[in-house]
Fold this protein.
Amino acid sequence: MKFRRPVCAMALALLLLNGMAGLPLFAQYQSISGHTLSQTEAKELVKSASTPEDHLKLAEVFRDQAQQEVAAAKFNQQMAMGTQYTPSSYQGHRYSLKEMREHFGYLAKKTSKAAAKFNKRAVEEESIAKEMREHPPQRGGYHR
């Protein structure tokens, strides 16, 4: 649909104006358990994971990311069900309540799917760690 990009920009602007941009969705990756990894550090860990501990840490990262996506899905669902939307002009177009509901409903569906994928990846990483612990290498350490 043509209106998705402008609506997204408008929604972000509304969030910034309302002081809600401090949510973890816009920040550096912040783990629920307290550690902080940048997106680059998380990607490096994915590439270099070679021990059960590395894979368990990845599982934790994926679970935390899933929780953030669930929070985003709830937020978007609330926005989709919202009734107090006052149309405002954005680049010469006024978005209707129907358009905003469709947009946030779409975002809610996408973030829910992303949460499921992150949870699935966490289970896979835990399985890899378990397999590595049950069948340690004969000699020479863990290798990919």
Summary: Confidence is low (pLDDT under 50) at residues 1-30. Strands lie at 89-90, 93-94. Residues 4-134 form one domain.
